[in-house]
Each structure stands twice: as C-alpha cells, then as structure tokens.
Amino acid sequence: MPEYTEPETSPAPAPAPAPVASADYEQLRRLAVELAEAAAAHVRARRPEVFAEDGPVVGAVATKGHVTDPVTIVDTESEQLIRGLLAERRPHDAILGEEGGGDVGATASGTVTWVVDPIDGTVNFLYGLPGYAVSVGAVVDGKPVAGAVVDVAAATTYSAALGAGSHAVRPDGTRVTLRCSSEDSLSVALVATGFAYGSVRRARQAQLLTEILPQIRDIRRLGAAAMDLCHVAAGRLEAYYEHGLNAWDWAAGALIAAEAGAVVHVPPVTVGGAAGELTVVAAPGIAKDLNDLLDRAGAPTALPD
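Structure (tokenized):
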C-alpha cells in the first residue's frame, strides 16, 4: 500500500495594501510622528554611547559613495527601528529608506510608501553639532501626504498632513502652527543651501553661490535638508535650494513647508539624488524673484553626480 503524503500547497499570497483616502492622512501624520520620535529618542540616547570622549567605538563609522559621505551604526539602527515598527503597525506598506533602500515607484495606486531618513545631517551627528533630524514621510502616488521631522538635539517635532496645515511641538508640549516668513524683498532674504559630497558637483554649486549671494541678505549652510525645510516653514529662513536631494531628504520637510505656505519645487519622488535635479522651497513673497535669480544663474540645469 503506497504511503500517504499531504498534497503540496502554495502559501497564501500576502494581502495587498489597501488604498488610503484623504481622511486617513491625519492618521498617517500621527504614525509618522510616532515613528520619528521613537527613532529620535534612540539616536539621542546612542550618541554618547557610540561617540564617547575617548573616541568612537570600533566600526561606528563607514562611508558610502564618497569618502566625505559617512554612515554610522546609529543611522542603521534608527532605520531598522522604524522598519520594525512599521512591520507591526502597517505591515503591507512599502518602505524607501536611505540605508535599506526600496522602490517608491513600485507600489499600487493609492497605497502608501514610507520614505525614511534615519538621520538627516549625519555629518553634524558625527561631529556632535546640533542640526540633525529623523525624517519620516508617507507618500501616495508620488505625492507626500503626511510627514514628521524631529530635530533630535532640540527635541522638537515638526509635522503635517496634506490639507491640514503644519505644526511644531516643543519639548514642553507647546504646539505651534507654522507659517512662512512674510518677507517680500529678495535682497534681505536669508537663504539656505547645501553642497554635494562629489567634488565636480560641489565645484559648480560654489560657482552658483557667487552669483546668488550678492543678491540676498546672506547664505546659511546648516547641513540637514529636512531641518532647512522646517526652518522655512517656521519663518526662520526665507528659502532653501539645493541640487541632488533624494526623496528621503525632502518627502516630509517639503510637505511641512508647503502646508506652512511655502512655494515648493521638488523633483519627482522616483528621481534619485545622483541625477542632480534642483529643489527650491521659498516663502511666497520672494519665491518668484528667487526663481528668476536661479534661472539667470543657470541653476535649473541638473548637476549629475
């Protein structure tokens, strides 16, 4: 008599992620805040452990595409923490992270991709300078619909949901509605920018700066794009521009700035930083004049890495 064996069965396919509606954006904002604040607390606690006074622990720092572009073990831990929380809370959503990768263009229509920068401003973090953040954005059909950016050192959380405005929550719990600067004169605008890690793009960025700087109040290079965008939202900067951002640099911050009234121009979310496309975010009163200045300087031309 032949031995009986169970017939082989294929595993059940994973449920497809459900499309989200605009009514869900506030829920996504709250989750983005939860994720970013949890990771920020981890980053805040780990820095003195990893970068002690007698030097960093062994293996704490590596480099990526350029020797000037560091990644730390805390970057990796922060992203793993966020991915783990998402696996519990929204296991069927896609994730695009700076360290773990992903594909924001491969999701079904109406579904969420979480776009994560586990530490934006890693050089500041490495050197112990204030001005590094955790950024978590929720993107649907190529458009950010919710996001949170936590200034780790200042313990301040910036967040927004599409159509619902943007806010900051200070360490004492005070909630502040964000509004862009009302400045309408480019000549007194304070503008932030950033520079690439690659020397060729960096040289061209320096050339552009010589044409832009004489026409504005001053330039700031603070070292974290997500924080620059939040500073525009809060009215501390009139504008920010930079070539070569990745989606994780701007997905949350650009929404926060737009919901505070900023005029926002970003590349498609599927375009990587190596393409060198221009991002410009400006208070409405100076946006046209700044864009005209950038046009005259040739800034709209992409600066590939």
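The helical segments are 25-50, 73-89, 122-127, 199-212, 225-233, 247-259, 284-297. The two ends are 69 Å apart (CA to CA).
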